[in-house]
Structures are given as structure tokens and as C-alpha cells.
Amino acid sequence: MVIAIIVIIYVETGEFMDFYTLTYLQEQNNVAQFVQYGIVVIIFLVLIVATILYIKDKFQTKYRDLSIIMALILLFMAGINFTEYQNGRNTSVQAAEATTFLKSISEEYHVKKDQVAINARGLSDGIIVKINKKFYKVNLSSDQTNYVLVRTHLINQKVKIHR
């Protein structure tokens, strides 16, 4: 006798729209970047120890091999970190623009800074700003020196605020 169990999982359609507050954007220190730097430091220390042990006892080829492997891994990680550094620099510039924009909105509308959020981590034309419980579409000028807020309504009201 075969018993079949059928599990029905209800999946709601539609994703949450993510909004980011000023605090979130300011504290957006990339934890993964710090972990990568920590790994590079550990690999560098292992490389130094292996090299010292190899120089101390020249007949132990395992230390030489370990030194070569660590040097290659260190070069590989340095290349990855350089690419991540360039991406992180671009991200931090975008976050700085967004934080300036959020501060401006907060002061102009006389609301607390944690009551203002945007749906992007950078400033661009067409983003949505949430001020208290109202939503506005941002129309930026081509040089991004001024903006117009147009009241808008979300079709999907599922909003997730990252604080």
C-alpha cells in the first residue's frame, strides 16, 4: 500500500518593495569587504610564517610549497579585493548622494529623518520616496541639482523598510 502525502504551499504573488532609510545608507559599511580584508591579512601572515620556516630549514619543501600556494592565493585575493574596492567606491558615492537627498527632503518637509526612505541605494530619476505614509516619484533634473516630487500611489502596498 502506497501512501502519498501532498503538500500545498501557498505562495503570495508579488515581492516586497524595498525602501532604505538615511540611517541604513549611512551605516552601509560592507561587512563582506571587511571579511575579505581579514582573509587577506590571515593569508599574508601564513605566507610570512611559511617563508620564515622555509628559510630556517631549507630541507623542508613543504614550507616552500606552502609559501608558493599562499603567495598565489594572496595575489588572487588582491585582484578580487581591488575589483571590490572599485565597486564599493562607486556604491559609496551613490549612497552619499542619496543621503544628501534624504536629508534635504527631511528638512524641507519637516519630518524626522527616520520617516523618510527611498526605494534605491543611489539617487536616480524615477525613484520612489516614502515620506511618513505617502509616496512620491522623484523627477530629477539632468544635472541632478534639483528635483520635483510627484505624489504617487503604489499598486502593491507591500513595503519593507531597511533601517
From TrEMBL:
Protein name: DUF3290 domain-containing protein
Chain ranges passing through the membrane: 34-54, 66-83
Keywords: Membrane, Transmembrane, Transmembrane helix
InterPro entries the UniProt entry points to: DUF3290
Domain of life: Bacteria
Organism in which the protein naturally occurs: Ligilactobacillus salivarius DSM 20555 = ATCC 11741
